[in-house]
Amino acid sequence: MSGLYRSALQARISKLPPMPHHDIPDEDEETESADSLGSLPTGMGPPAMQVWPARTPRPARKRTPNASFAPISASAFFDQANQVAVPASGLDVRVYYTPPKFADGTVMICHHGAGYSGLTFACLAKEINDMSHGECGVLALDCRGHGKTVRIASPLPQEEDLSIDRLTSDLVSLLETLFPDVSAAPTLLLVGHSLGGAVCVRACPLLQEHGYRITGVAVIDVVEGLSSPSPGSQLLMSSCESSEYTLEALPLMHSLLNARPEGFDSPEEAVEWHVKTNTIRNPVSARVSIPAVITPAPTGSPSSMPALVWRTPLRATAPYWTSWFTGLSSKFLAARTARMLVLAGTERLDKELMIGQMQGKFQLVVIPGVGHMVHEDDPTRLAEVLVEFWRRNERVVVGVKKVGEL
Asked: Are 251 and 355 in contact (CB under 8 A)?
């Protein structure tokens, strides 16, 4: 990593806002009620993978939750929320789904990034459904170790396997469970944000081998970037305003995670922190998605701990960081379907992607005025991009090649 780039990242870290210090309420807050739909089944998520010592004690100070950051129900954004048992992966997977209204419709399969959940796509899902007039459905999932996805049988707490191969296998197994009859399955368009993009790129050829029709792969704000790191997005959820960390920047991720608070005393406080730090620039989306990324602190936690902690301890995923993104560019360019890369703000590609772009191997879209959470910051603009991409490639005339196909 160049000295200049390292200095720039460290300068960003030094400017991050301080951790909030608040008193712990007498009773735990209900953090998940906002993302359930009616009487659909719920789950509390898997146990934490690894407990890391608290960085600093939190002095007690009471604070009334800000109602303007109160959680919003997901019921206005998805038609269904269900737990889907997937024996092949040993998971009970949380799925949010708005099916297409027509028999020959397409379903966008949305995979979130590290630390988030399927509800990160809530606002985007509604926009896509509206713009496509119901012809294109949206299915968003909570991947292993995230959201309300839990292990089917787990007698003892275990550390989750979040390797890229495992996450890819999980996605393929879920889709095989949901759409077991390949001949009757809808056409799929894979959409992945950050880590989710890496999963979708790897799942594409596996699904095609099983006979599924894949109309395209859209990767949101992540590049392998060994040679040209960009300050425009990020690989992992951090408290930076907007920063893309490629493989070269992974050594600094622990410092970035240290800049996050260890937890919050209410869902409102969690939403407020994400909005005020510009981690998510759309308050409505944050009010839907953020309650799913926190969970009540374990019973018996010290009094200095906040009432709500991060559901997925990202520091414990460090052994997987490099493998998540290694080889991403080549696998993306090799996908035998239409390909699109959506970046936030600044157009920066690694050498392999730059050559691929000049050769017309994929569609590149740069959305200005957003951070790493492109789909939450400006769901309307991204929905326009995705619906246009879908229409161009799903309704392609026989004999005419799709975008990105040679």
From this structure: no
Which candidate in 243, 372, 377, 378 is catalytic?
372
Active site includes 142? no
Please give the structure tokens belonging to residue 103: 């028999």
For 245-269, letters b (16+ CB in 10 Å) and e give bbbbbbebbeebbebbbbbbbbbbb
Residue 172: DSSP 8-state:
H
DSSP annotation of 35 reads G
Q: Is 221 an annotated catalytic residue? A: yes
Question: Does the active-site annotation cover 181?
Answer: no
User: Sign of the C-alpha dihedral, residues 226, 318, 374, 135?
Assistant: positive
Per-residue tokens: 143? 């991947």
172, 243, 308 from 344: Cα distances, Å: 28, 9, 30
Which one, of 139, 137, 166, lies nearest residue 82 by Cα? Answer: 139
Convert the pLDDT of each residue in 211-256 to its tens digit.
999 999 999 998 876 433 333 333 333 333 333 335 566 667 777 7
Rg (CA), the chain: 20
Among candidate residues 35, 142, 221, 377, the one labeled active-site is: 221
CA atoms within 13 A on the CB side of 304: 9
Catalytic member of 89, 169, 194, 289 = 194
Burial 93-119 (b: 16+ CB within 10 A, else e): bbbbbbebeeeebbbbbbbbbbbbbbb
Second-level CATH architecture of 69-394:
3-Layer(aba) Sandwich (3.40)
Q: How confident is the model at residue 150 (pLDDT cuts 50, 70, 90)?
A: very high
pTM listed for this prediction: 0.81
Taking Cα atoms as reference points, which of 148, 149, 147, 125 lies closest to residue 137?
125
With helix as H, strand as E and coil as C, how does 310-334 read? ECCCHHHHHHHHHHHHCCHHHHHHH
